[in-house]
Amino acid sequence: MKISISFIAATLIIGSFIGCNNTNTTDNSGATATSVKKDSAGANKGIGKFTNIRLTHPLDDSMVVRGKNLYDSKCMSCHKLSDEKLVGPGWKGVTDRRTAEWIMNFITNTNVMLDSDLVAQQLMVTCVARMPNQNLGDDQARAVLEFMRQNDGKK
Ligand code: HEC
Hints:
The chain is mostly helical. Helices cover 49% and strands 0% of the residues.
């Protein structure tokens, strides 16, 4: 117990320097993760029903537009499109640091991920906030993912 409290304190201190978008993965946290092996450099798909998202090229323009509208109405209050933290991490680079499956599972299964996915838990510690479930449907989450891909310069 002592160890995990001091880990959290250390992460909070580190987090205040590096900002919320840097995951600064330290694998020996006190958190118990059920199905997480490593950060997105590996193939962490998060926890949820999405195990195989097919990304298309070129981007689907109508999804990008729908995704942007959803961002404007439901996400913008906490997420910038740059790499700057607001309440949550800035979205710049999110499609590079996370798999598509992780992002989809996180958006649609937020509470389970925050309770059990090691990467999500670390974000929660560095952000000192817990993202509320936004109640997006699968199609809406997929549209937001397409908008994130566009924001990251994907074609
Ligand atoms: C009330 C603030 C808030 C709102 C609104 C919000 N988020 Fe979040 N989001 C967070 C926080 C805080 C985190 C970091 C994890 C945590 O601490 O819960 C986060 C993390 C994320 C992440 C992971 C980012 C990364 O760098 O890995 C994604 C993806 C995400 N949010 C998507 C969304 C989407 C999509 C919406 C809109 C439908 C949304 N969020 C709305 C606060 C919010």
